[in-house]
User: Fold these one by one.
Assistant:
Number 1:
Amino acid sequence: MHTKPGQGRQAILQECDLEAVQAAVKEHRQRLSVAKAELEQTLGKSFCRKTLADFVKKTVASINESANVPDAAKRLSASRSRKFTP
């Protein structure tokens, strides 16, 4: 069985929406539902929070690079390397 290119549902959030998503997530990093509501107004598209979370997860490397967010593994290793001195 072979499927033709273009089969299946088209993505709701696309690469052209990346800048708007980055700005909304950067502004509301802890409240994805608030970022979702803002993006629905801005983009004129309706989608669920999971769709936004999946899109952010897929593009997290570019978001972290543009926002200069330190890598979690680097923070963890730095905190473990500190020694407690009373």
Number 2:
Amino acid sequence: MSLFPSNVGSNGNGGETVLITFKAGKCLINPIQSNGKHQITPDARKGTVSLVKKNDQLHYLKWYDNYYLLNIIIIKFNII
């Protein structure tokens, strides 16, 4: 089993390579309180984070909800 599995090919994933995947939760940042500070609260949903490289040569950081298997957060960037 490899730490960096390769999913490139004709398996229907659009030519993307999953570089790493791990379990991770997320937190919510509430509006600024009267004391000028933010309150951070945990989100009860469990999730998975994946770092993916697609054919456009950009890297995507994706957070999936484990229950619904939805892409909740997607951040794309270029590694120089």
Number 3:
Amino acid sequence: MSIDSLAYANNLTHMDWALIISSLQTAEQRLKTSERLILNQCKLIWSLERTGEDTTSAMAVFREMERRQLKHLADRERLFAELGLVDAGEVGTRSVNTSRTV
């Protein structure tokens, strides 16, 4: 099914479709950045633990990063649902496909 027919079937204009695709790309980038930051924070926590230092603050930052990561995942899933590519309740790992066919 082409993007045009999918957009029509989901009552989306070309502008709506483009905006959602752009938002999906932003969400994907945020997820990648967030994953990298979370990994770096884990390394910091491990380093602090190895040297016997307090990890309380580092763990608080880590938990906030995890919370943000979940928000980015939810945003991405909502956008996929708006495109009609998945059921609104379906959750999974996907990436943005901006090709003209689906």
